[in-house]
Amino acid sequence: MKIAVDAMGGDHAPKAIVEGVLRARDATEFRDTTFILFGDEAQIKPLISDGHGIEIRHTTEVITGEDEPVRSVRRKKQASMVLAAQAVKDHEADAFFSCGNTGAVLACGIFVVGRIKGIERPGLMPTMPTITNDAGFNLLDAGANASNKPEHLHEYAKMGAFYAEDVRGVQNPKIGLLNNGTEYDKGDDVHKATYQLLKDDPDLNFVGNVEATTILQGSADVVVTDGFTGNAVLKTIEGTAGAMMTLLKDNLMHSGTKVKIGAALSKQAFKGVKAKFDTSRYGGAVLLGCNAPVVKSHGASDNRAVYYAMLQIHEMVRKDTVTKFKDYFAK
Questions:
Q1: Exposed, middle or buried, 303 (CB in 10 Å: 0-12/13-18/19+)?
Q2: 267 and 139 within one domain
Q3: What's the catalysed reaction (predicted)?
Q4: Owning domain of residue 49
Q5: Predicted confidence (pLDDT) per residue in 176-214, tens digit
Q6: Same structural domain for residues 30 and 156?
C-alpha cells in the first residue's frame, strides 16, 4: 500500500505532516505501507531520522491558502499537492492526502484523480461527534459544492450510507435529510424533492428530515445536505465547541477558590467532554465519489490529526472501499 502525502499543505507543514506520517509508519497497522512525501526535500529530510517506509519526492512549488483553487492546480504543475494527486492517477499510489487549500484539494480530487463513473458530484464528508455514543455521524456535502440538485443529495445519501457501513461498521445506517423542520413538507423545492427520492429508495434506511438541533444527539448516522449549508453547520459545530471550552476554562481560572477546587475535582469529567468533541480522532474529510481515496484534513491539523487521517485512509484502502463504490454505482 502506498499513500501520496502533500507534505507542504497546512498551517504547520511540513513538520506536523511529517511527524504524523512517522507516527503512522511506526504503528503496527502500517507494516505494509509506504508513504510518499511530496514537498521541499530540504525542509522534509531533516525531520526524518529513519527513512524506513518513507519516500521523498522533491517539488518546487506550493499551493497556498491564498491561491485561487482551480487556476493554481492548472498552473502550478510542480506543486506538492498536484504531484501527489497525479501519483494516484498514475497508479503509483493508492490514496491522496493533504491539509492544504480546500478548494485546490477538491480540484485535484475531481480533475486529477477523477470522478467515479456514475457520480455527478463528489461530496466532502467529515465524521462528526455525537454526545450519545463514540460512533459519530457523517455529514455531506460539507463544502465541495455550493448548490445542489435533489439528484446530487440522493447520491450523497447512497455514498454516505455505503461508507458508514463499509468503513465505520455501522449496520443499516440511518439517513437523515438536514432541514428546517422534521415535517415531510418542510423546506424549499430542492429539499421536498430530495425527501421523496430518499423515501422511495428501498436501499436506504431513511428516517426523514432532521434538524441541526438534534444531529449531535445521533438522530442520524448520515446527515445529507447541500454543500453551502453543510459547510456552515460544520464550522458552527467546530467553532461552538472551541468557544465553549475556552469560555469554561476562562471562567474556572478566574473564579474563587471554591470553584477552582470543584474544577480540580471535576478534571476527569472536563477531559471527557474535551475528548468527546475532539474531531481529530475521526480522521479527515473524505471526498467521496473519486477514483481513489482523497482525504482532506484541517489546515491547522497537528501530527495527531495527521496520524488519525492515515488510519482512516489505510482502512479505506485495505477494505478496497472505492472499488466497491464503483461496482455499486455501476449497477
A1: middle
A2: yes
A3: a fatty acyl-[ACP] + phosphate = an acyl phosphate + holo-[ACP]
A4: 1-119+289-331
A5: 999 998 888 888 899 999 999 999 999 999 999 999 989
A6: no
